Every structure is written in C-alpha cells, then in structure tokens.
Amino acid sequence: MVAAVTRLTEEVSRTQQRAVYKRAAILLVLCIVLAAIASSSDLHEALMGVLAVTEDIIGQHPIAGAAAFVMLAAISAIFTFVSIAVIVPAAVFAWGPAASIALLWLGWILGGAATYGIGKFFGRPVVGWFTAGEALRRVESRIPNNAPLWLITLLQLALPSEIPGYVLGLVRYPFPRYVLALGLAELPYTFATVYLGASFVEGRVGLILITGALIALLSLVTFYAWRRTVRDTQTRAL
C-alpha cells in the first residue's frame, strides 16, 4: 500500500514539477538576456535612455504610473504566461528599490487574491480558462481546506503563484490565512526581483546572474520540500 501511494504521489507531482522547471528556465533565460544587454555598453546606455523617458512620463503622471504598475503585477499573478520582470528595471529607475518593492508586493497580493476569488466564486469551469485543469486537479487532491499555514506558505513558495490561488479558492481555504501565506511567500521573490532590476540598472552583470540563479534555486528547493512533506504525510496516514 505504501509503495502504491508513493508511486501515485510521484505521478501527481510530475505536472507541478514541469511548471516549476519551466518557471526556473524562463527566469534563467531572462537573466542571461539582461546580463548580455548589461554587458554591452551601447545597448545598456540605449536602454537607460528609454528608461529615462519612462521616468519622465511617470513623473508627469505619478498616480497613474503606480496604478498601472500594480495592475500589471496583479495580471502577472493571474496569468502564468505574463511576467512583470521585464518592466521592473523601469520601476526601479523611476521610483527606486523601496517603492518598487512595495508596489510589486501589493500587485502580486492583489493578483493572488483575484485567483482565489475566481476559484471560490466561479469554480473549476472558469478556472480552466486561466490554467491547466489537470494541474489544478492534481494539486487540489493534495491540499485539504484545513491545511496548516506553514504548508500553504511552502506551497506558495514552491509553485507559480496562480496555481495555489486557484486551488485554495476551489477548496475554500480560509481567505485571511491564504493572504497571510501569500504575503509571506511573495516577500523573498519581491525583494529578489527588484534587486534583479536594480542590478540591471546599475549594469552589474554578475549580480544579475547570481540573483536569477538564487531565485530559481529557491523555487526548486521549496518545491521538493513541499512534495516530500506531502508525500510523508500521506504515507503516515496509511
């Protein structure tokens, strides 16, 4: 019986593992591209000119600019194919790291709350429009609605943010605890993403690559920690 559960757990994890690997690979490719641009003085200088123009526009419309950035961050938390990372350097250039961290964190929390609401109030048929239904079913089968806060935080750290939000909405996980776990889990990614943007603005090629590698490593380590925790819990329950 234990062997059967172990095989089932491994099979259930494959979809999530592919999603984690895909996120890590996209991040690393993005960091390599940013590092290549930063290493070219001509390209980097040209892009800094573009960011300077962006800063002027944001300076003329500060509230609208901040609102647009928060909205884009929220959208990136809802749709797996949308990434905010490519415009973070512009935010850092315009507002500085501290304000960028606050705006990005707020946007990701709002986006996560939206995925939770979609899962809770519209159910699986609508959720299926936004992400793979098979991945949702496999994660949902492993998350009870009374799961401890630390496990949900680990789940948020391990998987792309939209998947836990949809699943926890579907299983009716308590919203205040979900938001707390979401906020805790997004903090390290927020700091790292903004630091990545700041490194690009400053032309620090080595820090761009190191930061990207650390973010990818955090995603992989937390995923395997979450998978092992759930597998051990299921085995003990037999």
What can you tell me about this protein's structure?
It is a single chain. With 238 residues, the protein is mostly helical. The protein has one domain. It is 85% helix and 0% strand. The chain is built from 10 helices and no strands. α1 packs antiparallel against α10, α4 (88-95) runs antiparallel to α5 (97-130) and α5 (97-130) packs across α9. Mean pLDDT is 80; it is low at 1-12.
- Could you tell me the radius of gyration in angstroms? 19 Å
Q: What class do helices, strands and sheet pairing give?
A: mainly alpha
Task: Categorize the overall geometry.
Answer: globular
Secondary structure tally: strands? 0
- The quaternary state of the protein chains shown equals single chain
Weakly predicted, low-confidence segments: 1-12
Strand content bin: under 5%
Tell me the count of domains: 1
Question: In a few lines, what is going on in this structure?
Answer:
By secondary structure, this protein is mostly helical. It is built from 10 helices and no strands.
